[in-house]
Amino acid sequence: MVCEPTANHRRSIRMPGYDYREEGGYFVTLLVSRRRRAFGRVENGETRLSAYGQIAQRCWMALPDHFPHVVLDEFVVMPNHFHGILRFVTTPVGAQHAAPLHLTPHVTPGSLGAVVRSFKSAVTRQANLYRIERNLPSTTIWQRNYYERIIRDEKELHETQRYIIENPLYWEQDELYKDS
Predict the structure, then answer these.
(1) Is residue 12 included in any domain, yes or no?
(2) Which of 7, 32, 74, 152 has its CA 20 to 30 A from that of 57?
(3) Spatial separation of the C-alpha atoms in residues 23 and 91, rounded to whole Å
């Protein structure tokens, strides 16, 4: 098989034809590289965040500062993954911040992909600055891509919120617990 460097060999897991700038709710899950428990640990049903987990939490909380059309809903930083709900409330306007635009030119400004890319980029940058300050080499923080689900109604929103809130309570039964 001949590799064509200009061909895009990655398959999108997004819904074909859907505009991910649309108003509404989005449930996202991001995995830590190699499913390492880099973000902390769970004790007695509560997540105890490491320095990297604290960075991820701060970067998530800062998203509305960079994307005014984004409202945060429930989220949880788990030891080796992250769950969160984003609500898009208006048509995106303005510039994007904290995202290297040249790396993925096919990402639409203001879209879910742009917001997630910015979040992952900010966490990686700040985590690696933290490592450099301690004379440690930089590292990969995230697995490639992310999982998303479009939240279609209030019932699904409430179920997803409950899932996120209760996620630490069921950590030892989680498939991501067993894989890490």
Answers:
(1) no
(2) 152
(3) 7
Q: In the chain, how many domains are there?
A: 1
Most distant CA pair in the chain: distance in Å? 52
Alpha carbon of 161 to those of 62, 74, 97, 147, 167: distances in Å? 20, 6, 27, 16, 10
The three-state (H, E, C) secondary structure of 59-85, written as one string: HHHCHHHHCCCEEEEEEEECCCEEEEE
Nearest by Cα to 29 from 139, 107, 143: 143
In angstroms, the CA 23 to CA 152 distance is: 11
Per-residue pLDDT tens listing for the chain (180 residues): 343 444 444 555 656 767 777 899 999 999 999 999 999 999 999 999 999 999 999 999 999 999 999 999 999 999 999 999 999 997 544 544 444 444 455 678 889 999 999 999 999 999 999 999 999 999 999 999 999 999 999 999 999 999 999 999 998 877 766 666
CA–CA dist 112, 118 (Å, integer): 10
| Residue pair 91/108 in contact by the 8 Å Cβ criterion | no
Residue 107 CA to residue 146 CA, distance in Å, equals 14
